[in-house]
Design a protein that fits this description.
Blueprint lengths: L1 E3 L13 E3 L28 H14 L3 E7 L9 E6 L3 H19 L4 E3 L6 E5 L3 E6 L1 H7 L1 H5 L5 E3 L2
Parallel strand pairs: 4-7
Antiparallel strand pairs: 1-2, 3-4, 3-8, 5-6, 6-7
Length: 160
Amino acid sequence: MSRLVSGPCTGALPSRCLEPEDDALSLSTPAASPANPKAQRVTAATYDSDQLLDAILTSLDDDKAEEVVKINLRGKSEMGDWMVIASGRSTRQVSAMAEKLTDRLKQRFGVISKMEGKDIGDWVLIDTGDVIVHLFRPEVREFYQLEKMWMPGADASPAG
């Protein structure tokens, strides 16, 4: 492989502007060992959205999340199977819960979650694919009222 070199080219042919690309990115390295070797790792083929939901609820409970609500989205949205909404008392707690949750899901299931809003910590959105998680500060949660938008009645339930 070759790559373009920035700066002026020597010679009339564009091929003179190329130099060999290093192969550092194509080297394979052994995978890192898990931080906790006793932690059970589940492969993508062996877990479903309900197991993912249970792990999310457990993580949020461990981190003292408040007013945790789960909403069944099956048949209502292609976004995912579940939505979880929870609150933290401060921006620091919300950000920490989000970080720990994504780390735990990666360790246990190999799930690479997409996360938005962690740096600010008012509202963090975590997309795991099958479960969408919203973590709020209480004032921000009250302002947006996502529960009212997504729960027509009995489809939302307190987690726990």
